[in-house]
Amino acid sequence: MDNSLSDPPIENIRGIGPQKAALFSKLGIRTVREALTYLPFRYEDRSQIIRIKDLRQGQTETVRGTVVSCALIRPKGKKFRIFEILLSDGSGTVKGRWFNQPFMQRNLKAGQDLFLRGEAKRDPYFAGGFIIEGPEYEPASGDGLIHVNRVVPIYRLTEGISQKQFRKIMFAIVEGYAGRLKDPIPAEVISGLGLPPLHESLVAVHFPTVCDIALWNNGESPYHRRLAFDELFLLELGIASLRRDVEMTQGYGFTGGGGLRKRLEKKLPFDLTKSQRRALKEIETDMARPAAMRRLLQGDVGCGKTVVAFFAMLNAVECGFQAALMAPTSILAEQHYRNLCTMGHEIGVRIALLTAGAKERRLDMIAAGEIPVVVGTHALLEEPVLFGKLGMVVIDEQHRFGVAQRVRLRNKGNNPDVLVMTATPIPRSLALTLYGDLDYSSIDEMPAGRIPVETKVFSADQKKEIYTILEEEIGRGRQAYVVYPVIEGSEHTDLKAASQGKTGFAKVFPAFRIALLHGKMAAAEKEEIMRAFARHEIDLLVSTTVVEVGLDVPEATLMVVIHAERFGLAQLHQLRGRVGRGQDVSRCLLVACAGLGDDARRRLRVMVETNDGFRIAQEDLAMRGPGELLGTLQSGMPGLRVADPARDLRLLESAREAAFALEKADPGLGRHALLKEACSAFWKGRADFTAAG
Ligand code: ADP
Ligand code: MG
């Protein structure tokens, strides 16, 4: 008996030669299993058969009748040939016509009982009758009805193969192999969730007999769910074993008693929020364990992650270790540095800054372990930087750093605890999957007394109102951002360029200090401008989205986004987060410059309605699907063919729970050989995605 997954290459299928195999491979199908999990992207209900006399001009319909006559015609003086049939069902007669397919005369014969489908057109040469050109057809006798008289699958295809050809091959594969594929997922897992068996599911997603077409088209039938579950289960199983590796990694257990933290807490001008306290507790509990910590701290911009991270760092410091905080840009690192210095000063903890341009680089003191807390950029990763005793690493804005960099920083110590901070709130189960090897803490409330940013939508022709608001804000000593989607105007679009914008504003407001900031500037130049803005030497910063991350300027109270309809929700929210950082009410003006589609309208409405990052993230996920989100967060997400983590969030949760339980009951999957094989096949080539980093 064959005990492996037995997944024959696609060439083994009758009717697939090297040429077809190459086409299939273009679609990502190399084996029978891959073919079976290549699902239709939609379904067409062709189960309705109408009478020929009920055909209507321009309507696509299916009829059934007897072939009355066939003819192969060569029009005079023309090179091509036409094959025509007449089909009659007693109610009327319809003509079918095929251009340049003389072989059709072998396929169809007079007297045959036939289904015919296509768009009916009046035929001027066929008194009052209809003609269907290039129809789909299928003999009504015989058993397998594939193309008509049923709900038929429509696949995404590539040039060189037609729906009909592909469907026919898929039908053969489903018939021949769906029942022979071994099911690697344990039966009790599947039945426990009330999901249908594999065989049944494969048949039903390709060639449903009875179906609710809307459910099928949305990929939400029980059979779709079953196949999506399989993928998510294998995904989570791999993650479960990554987690186990992390668990087995010896780290430091920090059990200092929290003296430093308590001293600092007394000096802070505020109390931690409930959410902050809960996150800190989770982090401290984790740090106290002897295993290495790998944890994600998620929370909206301004919710107070840095304070929590600093408390956690003190935990390591108290035990005689060093802690490092890595930020994606010098400006952010400096901001963190100033922040931490203020707090560190209160309790006599020294902080050092380490960026490429930092004036003093106390490498010796860091190497000697004399400076307990070091804040920096990528410069922390460089060769000459050595830590005396690095026990804890905090990484801000995770998605700016690759997994490899995370590993490099960690290797500066002897497996220090790692805390990754991110301001892109996403649902827990999705976060746990994306950052597979990390545990998860989140801060989901804002400190009391935060003033929400007032958000309003304007149209491009409300220039006057927008200018008035700008004048008002800057006139009372505040600062403003104006953000554009691109740098230079392009002939092909009506995008308003930031550079043109700057010139325009300079004309309207000659008294304002205005600067331009964009992504094509040299890094040093960019930083200089941002610093000048932070020092309030600039009133109005006209920029592209480079201003998106990091800048913390309390006096900036106005954010104007031009072409707001072109920005995604997450990006708009991040941009808006640049203001509202001081004691005053801040405003965000979303300027819509083009006709709004439904999606754009909805995005802008969400922005006006809420300041809640979690809600915005949910909406974003619901609107865009996770693809783009995943793309921005971390590249190399295992390609999912069936599952859609946004749509299937609940299923993802079940898959995670079941996979972790199984991995726990049978670590290494010694008792589930087939499953183990399926899991490694699934993870093959996808392994860097969460590479335990
Ligand atoms: P994040 O890193 O999540 O964007 P920060 O930690 O930089 O947020 O905090 C933003 C601001 O809020 C800082 O000025 C910080 O001192 C302040 N802050 C943090 N926690 C609280 C709190 N519980 N109450 C009031 N202010 C707080
Ligand atoms: Mg921050």
Instruction: Give me the secondary-structure category.
Output: alpha/beta
From the coordinates shown, what is the CATH architecture of the largest domain? Answer: 3-Layer(aba) Sandwich
Report how far apart the termini are.
40 Å
Integer-rounded radius of gyration:
32 Å
List the total number of helices: 24
Top CATH class of the largest domain = Alpha Beta
**Which fold name is given in CATH as the topology of the largest domain?**
Rossmann fold
- pLDDT averaged over residues: 87
The number of distinct structural domains comes to 4
The largest sheet is:
7 strands, parallel
Strand content: 15-25%
The CATH homologous superfamily of the largest domain corresponds to: P-loop containing nucleotide triphosphate hydrolases
Q: Strand tally, please? A: 21
Report low-confidence residues grouped into runs of 5 or more: 491-495, 631-637, 688-693
Strand order of the largest sheet: 11-12-10-13-14-9-15
Structural commentary:
Helices cover 38% and strands 18% of the residues. The chain is an alpha/beta fold. The protein has four domains: 10-44 and 156-217, no CATH class; 48-146, OB fold (Dihydrolipoamide Acetyltransferase, E2P) (Beta Barrel), CATH 2.40.50; 259-443, P-loop containing nucleotide triphosphate hydrolases (Rossmann fold, 3-Layer(aba) Sandwich); 454-610, Rossmann fold. The strands form four sheets. The chain has a seven-stranded parallel β-sheet, with helices on both faces. A six-stranded parallel β-sheet has the order 16-21-20-17-19-18, with helices on both faces. Strands 2-3-4-6-5 form a five-stranded mixed barrel. Helix 6 packs across helix 8 (222-248), helix 9 (259-267) runs antiparallel to helix 11 (305-318) and helix 10 runs parallel beside helix 11 (305-318). The two termini are 40 Å apart. The model is unreliable at 491-495, 631-637 and 688-693 (pLDDT under 50). The chain binds adenosine-5'-diphosphate (ADP) and magnesium ion (MG). Adenosine-5'-diphosphate (ADP) is lined by residues 270, 272-273, 276, 299, 301-307, 447.
